[in-house]
Design brief:
Length: about 270
């Protein structure tokens, strides 16, 4: 088993672009969300597309926020044009970013009892105690409870005669997405991609455990790597939304000015 310090390997621009990167995302969507916009598909399948789209948007935000602006001088900063082109200019992608954030928040609140008792042992007693304290602060934060009472009624999802089949199908699709991430040529991109897909799969695992009374199954068990992935995903999504709120208005103003300037020149 290999341990990686994520703080030393932040999610950022890596130079992994072009046809290879596009093919991975095209495969993720085409193999797992065919005809995702069609009304003939059930709510569960539309939820899956929104989750993947929201995760994709979050990854794009982090790439734009920590971008290599000048390779010669090793200058890093925010690429507002990329942020606008990849995310802000597509309202649906922004909505899906918020949706997946609420989805993961909902899962975390549902798994409060388990997450509070989970082991966060690294061998550093001081850091372990700090981590346990921070987890409890998160789980019992009144803002968290108020922000995510019921973003959607998961008790109505994956129920009925087709419920078990849909659950198995979605779990298989996430295994497929994780396998597709193995095809990513960039090691750091592959690391963050698989970690966040596992985090999303863990959120689904938690909400799959919700019974008809909207109560979490007492038999819920999460592995250590699932808890780590879930918490890291929540951090990534919350940071993405923070970046969008902070930099979004500036990015839109800059792009509006450029569009206006281009239109003016064209009319001359």
């Amino acid at each position: 088993m290999t341990y990686v310090n994520l703080q030393l390997n932040p999610e950022r621009y890596t130079g992994y672009t072009g046809p290879s990167a596009r093919r991975i995302w095209e495969a993720v969507y085409s193999e797992n969300c065919p005809k995702y916009s069609s009304e003939e598909f059930c709510q569960e399948k539309r939820v899956l597309y929104k989750l993947i789209s929201g995760l994709h948007s979050s990854i794009s935000v982090h790439i734009a926020f920590d971008f290599l602006l000048d390779e010669a001088n090793n200058l890093w900063g925010v690429n507002l044009e990329l942020l606008y082109d990849r995310v802000l200019s597509h309202p649906e992608r922004v909505k899906n970013l918020y949706f997946v954030f609420l989805f993961v928040l909902r899962a975390v609140t549902k798994a409060t009892d388990f997450l509070e008792q989970a082991e966060y042992n690294t061998g550093n007693l001081e850091e372990d105690l700090k981590t346990q304290s921070l987890v409890r602060q998160l789980l019992y934060n009144h803002k968290l409870q108020a922000a995510c009472p019921i973003p959607f009624d998961e008790a109505k999802l994956w129920q009925g005669e087709s419920g078990p089949e849909l659950k198995q199908q979605i779990q298989a699709q996430f295994r497929n997405i994780s396998a597709l991430m193995d095809c990513v040529g960039c090691e750091k991109c592959r690391l963050w991609g698989k970690l966040q897909v596992l985090g999303l799969a863990t959120a689904l695992k938690i909400l799959f455990s919700v019974d008809n009374q909207n109560l979490i199954n007492q038999q819920l068990q999460l592995q250590r790597n699932e808890v780590i992935a879930l918490m890291n995903l929540l951090n990534r999504l919350s940071e993405s939304i923070k970046f969008v709120k902070e930099k979004g208005p500036n990015a839109e103003k800059i792009m509006e000015k450029r569009t206006h300037s281009t239109t003016t020149k064209s009319s001359l």
